[in-house]
Amino acid sequence: MTSVDVSVLLVNWNTCAETRRCLASLPDAVTEGLHYEVIVVDNGSTDGSLDMLAAYRDIVLIRNSDNVGFAAAVNQAYAHANGELILLLNSDVRFRPGALAALVRFLRDRPEAAGVAPLYLDSHGAVQQHYMRLPTFRSALALGTALRFLPGFRHVWRAHVMEGVDFSKTQPVPQPSASCLLLRRGVLDPERVFDERFPLYFNDVLLARTLADAGHQLWMTPQAVVTHTLGASTGLLGESKRTAHRLDGLIRYVRLTQPRRRLRILQALVLLDRLARRMFGVRGQLRLPDLWAAIRGGLGSLPDIDRREWVVILSGVGWERWSAGEHRQHALAKTLSAGRRVLFVDPPARRRCWRLSVRQVQPGLWHAIAPNLLPCGRLLPAANWINRRIAAARLNQWLDRHPGARLLWLDEDLSTPVAGRLGERALVYDVSDLDWTFARPWNRWHHRREMHKAVNAADLVLTSSSVLPRWLPPSQYPPVTVPNGCDPARFCPEGRVTESVSKLSGPRLGYAGAIDTRCFDGELIAEVARRRPDWTFVLTGPSTRAGRAPLANLGNVHLLGSKHFDDVPAVLRACDVCLIPYRLGGLVDYVHPKKLYEYLALGKPVVATALPALAEQEDVVHLADTPERFIVAIDKALTSSRSADAASQRRAVAMSHSWSVRGEQLRVLLGELEGRRR
């Protein structure tokens, strides 16, 4: 049997992609004749890592059902190691060609060296500072508190992190990072590598101190180069939990290496420092229970967490408005929650709100009401900016307690001040409407300015209509049209029928939506109703006085008022034809009405004004632009309403435009976005 030169010990915790890239870089990192083995411990991952690792036949895979902590997992791998050299390797490290061979060659050429680390580069090729001196009491104080910014401690801190040292030269390093550290087996404890009392941080610091106390020396060499992503696993914890575990490790280290009185001084100063941060609202605050546990050095191991990405949706439509109609924003939020965690944040309320309120509404989906301290935010840019920044700070605190990567999703222009404030990896701007067209003429500049900022900042711009991009300013990448959709199960042909509507004389022509002057063409419906008194018009939805005015005194027009969204299908089932009488021209004919697919899902013929976005659906929609043509189109629709085949065709079109189909489209787009951002 071939002897093993190097045992590679790697711990994986929900870093499937990083671990795959790390393993793929290993073969080119060695030279012929260098034999190595790879031992991977998976710490209860839930991101598909196990399936990926199971495909590798040349590794030893140890599966933990729970997260036992980083130190314990390394020790598990060490127990299976056969090599004379032990490589401690993080999953977010990628070797440059020949890097591992260079590390092995270094130890063989320098028998006095106990271990060696490579030169670390970030993804852009810049040197990462991963070499430090062992902590003294003063540097521990600088590390754990803001004292490092004061003149008396600043030089201590700089000395600790070896600031100004030229790492382009081979040299001894008291404490190199263990992200990629090759060690001689003979200098290690036969039973373990790390002290398991340090589950996450400072286990490598204690190891370096133990080796130094035994007279061993660690080195770094720029002849071996690796790329380091930095914090692939610990980044999943969120800033506050990561900080708590780092403080916990520092306290444990000082407890083992310093007199008791110094430990008490450190604990007191850390407590005062953190309380002061809370008082002044500094970002990254710790919850008091976590702070107290960290100061006592009793925080424990890494938690098992839901590591799915967060999609934070700052919407212009409140969640409670769902009862009046499932808006695009609500449907997409529910669709995205199938594979991600979604935090749906309402727009600022009219009344002042002092606290962040979050509740879970279904698996994977949370609804938040953010603080809103200043009135008139929609009218006053300064008030809007302050309100949004305060909301961002509170949302950050909540998200830090529920860690995971973040994607920011905006569908309201005025939420743009939050962009870049949540630590998001990317920004999606979903344009379902032109918000400035809803504003008063004197306030439209405010909305249009924020729209320009959102488009410029967005990594992905979505539009609900193929016509909308021409209304938008230039963006980094071409806008992608993701049209509105429907829920075919809710709008199925079979089901309850509203009896009061079915008793009206026919034929019955139905409309569900707002009856206003912005979109709804009341003059068109009134003219058609006057010319065809034998037709009955059933209009369901909220209405304004101006919207109702053209319909006054028309006996064949019935206004049913607002209905709960669950009751709308029953009203429309009693109708023979469904209408989309939207105004043409002006500021709103960019729309691609969601109700089109809801009508088609019911199998109903649809007559609509000739909106530009509906031209591509002309085979299933009757389009008209004048009262005369609208009447002709309705006559044709009434004829087709008696065809079962035509109804099935309309239903099939609706199925191809369901929200689940839109969800698949979004998953592809977000996957491409993630690849583009790497």
Fold and architecture overview:
Keywords: Glycosyltransferase, Transferase. It is an enzyme of class 2 (transferase). One of its GO terms (molecular function) is glycosyltransferase activity. This is Glycosyltransferase. Its EC number is 2.4.-.-. The chain has 678 residues and is of the alpha/beta class. 34% of the residues lie in helices and 19% in strands. It has 21 helices and 25 strands. Strands 1, 2, 3, 4, 5, 6, 8, 10 and 11 form a nine-stranded mixed beta sheet that branches. Strands 14-15-13-12-16-17-18-19 form an eight-stranded mixed beta sheet, sandwiched between helices. Helix 5 packs across helix 6 and helix 5 packs parallel to helix 9. The longest helix has 20 residues. It starts with 5 loop residues before the first strand and ends with a helix. The relative contact order is 0.07.
What is the average of the pLDDT values?
A: 91
Biggest β-sheet strands, sense, barrel: 9 strands, mixed
Instruction: Tell me the helix content.
Output: 25-40%
Give the terminus-to-terminus CA distance: 41 Å
Radius of gyration: 32 Å
Which stretches are low in confidence, meaning pLDDT under 50 for 5 or more residues running?
A: none
So how many helices? 21
Subunit organisation of the chains? single chain
Dominant shape: elongated
Strand residue content? 15-25%
How many β-strand stretches? Answer: 25
Class from secondary-structure proportions: alpha/beta
